[in-house]
Amino acid sequence: MTPHRNAQAAARLFKTPIQRWTSKIRLFACSGAVGMMALSAADVGNAATLTAAARGWHGTAGSAVDAPTVHTTSDQPQQHKRQNVLLIISDDLAARIGPYQADVRTPNLDRLASQGVTFDRAYSQFPWCAPSRASFLTGTRPDTTGVYNLWTPFRRKLPDIATLPQYFRQNGYFSGRVGKVFHQGVPGDIGTSGPDDPQSWDMVVNPSGRDRDAENGRLNDLTPGIPYGSALTYLADDGEDEEQTDGKVASEAIRMIEQHKDDPFFIAVGFYRPHVPEVVPKKYFDLYPLDRIKLAYETPETLAQVLPASKAWTPDNFGMTETEQREIIRAYLAATSFVDAQVGRVLDAVDRMGLADDTIVVFMSDHGFLLGEHGQWMKNILFEESAQVPLIIRVPGTKNAGEHSPRTVELLDIYPTLTQMAGLPHYNRNQGTSLAELLADPDSPSWAKPALSQVNGGRSVRTERWRYTEWEQGKDGRELYDHAADPLEHRNLADDPRYAQVVSLLRAMLPPGPVEKRMGSIGYDAARDCLLKPLGPRPDKADIDKPGVQRPCDMIDP
């Protein structure tokens, strides 16, 4: 096979768009039995080397990328101040919002999507709060940050790295934070800076609302005995939006934008919902009648196929009844609509202040959230619902408003994207790739990059068609899913000999070397015990900073 055809073969692994979220995404058929590429063993190795060298996703620092400029509605250069950046982060929000064709009411995010580009295949590098945020805010992979739990600070391993907000600050921007941006325990750290990164900011605001102390016996707890920040709990609360923490986050964000509207600013707004406890005003619960809530589609046969390693820290459905499952799904949807309303308030303020033409807006989540799919709940799992995230980017004047990109992207791509779009020098420690190419052409045929995600014990690589995962380098199992035929990930093809070539090519894309131990590796019973016991005091910093120390119960959210 010639090098040109070899590159085409590798590209076909990435470029097999499937019809998932929009009718614009094409369905391609691969030739050959079971829809695979016809690759020889040599071709597999060469293709993997070719694509790895092209994108450098094994953790090496990225180099400057000359991506095309986003086309605007004016052919004349804009004569105004530098572009502001408004980064809006929702906590634990899956790609279960209106722009992704989900049956949930999110009119403000729908509006934002109509004005920007929605990325249909965006993935977290570690679907758990602290590791994910450390990754995308430093623009580096979890194996670079060294953050695999909720306690280890990324500056232990990266003392001199410039975070995304810090880099803008160093380049003359006002840098401000409202709410949860770096990791905070929920609800324990609400109203405090928690384990923040002070050198990233010129100003921080830590709002706290009535939901902060909602544990005074009023919560509906569907998983009794599990630590509060990880329990499936909810409350249809009294009062108005502005009395809740996220309502106050929106108000303080608007105030900060108003104060700095004449300066180039980088303002990060971090909402706490839909992270549990799901405490939001009752009117949002009323949007979703309980008898209309649908459960995840699973059967005894599909549940039996789930590898123990991929679910070790979460017992199936926590023993909840179907009614209880509907209750927490309803609460999650209510919290999603509540966050949408707060996002709308901030976006309305940007418009009202006349800043829309000068402000890049990014809406994202730190990771997804399972609601009973595969019998699992919450996060820290590599299934699609946990690893995929919503990502919408609005660049002033774009000609691609309302478009969807089917290309596979990563959260760590946000850092180099924003620096490039703001006209700042490329930061050479970034390990992501600027999305400017896809903002200019959402269907760009030259984009051929996989997405890597990991949790303790497992690593995944995703292309537009495939997801391949190894647990403990394959010793605890492997997974391969064909999203073109099996978008719900119910049929594991990893051990099917007909797919050996696909497995070989995808496996070559995974970083080499061992992974941090998963809680399941200490035994399922011990993992379950950690879920059912109170956390107690935080680990001593001297203990958690010791290389290689992994306390099993550190896996639970505070």
UniProtKB/TrEMBL annotation:
Q: Which GO terms describe its molecular function?
A: iduronate-2-sulfatase activity; metal ion binding
Compositional bias ranges of the Basic and acidic residues kind: 209-218, 538-548
* Alphabetized Gene3D superfamilies for the sequence: Alkaline Phosphatase, subunit A (3.40.720.10)
- Domain (Sulfatase N-terminal) ranges: 83-423
Q: What is the organism field in this record?
A: Novosphingobium pentaromativorans US6-1
Please list the coiled coil stretches.
none
InterPro entries on file = Alkaline_phosphatase_core_sf, IDS, Sulfatase_CS, Sulfatase_N
What the entry lists under CDD domains is as follows: iduronate-2-sulfatase
Q: Which family does it belong to?
A: Belongs to the sulfatase family.
Any Gene Ontology CC annotation: cytoplasm
Q: Which residues form the signal peptide?
A: none
* High-level lineage: Bacteria, Pseudomonadati, Pseudomonadota, Alphaproteobacteria, Sphingomonadales
Q: Where is this region: Disordered?
A: 190-222, 535-558
Mention any Pfam family matching this sequence: Sulfatase
Cofactor(s) needed for function = Ca(2+)
- Does RNA-binding show up as a keyword for this record? no
For this UniProt record, give its keywords in alphabetical order, as a comma-separated list: Calcium, Hydrolase, Metal-binding, Signal
Name of the featured protein: Sulfatase
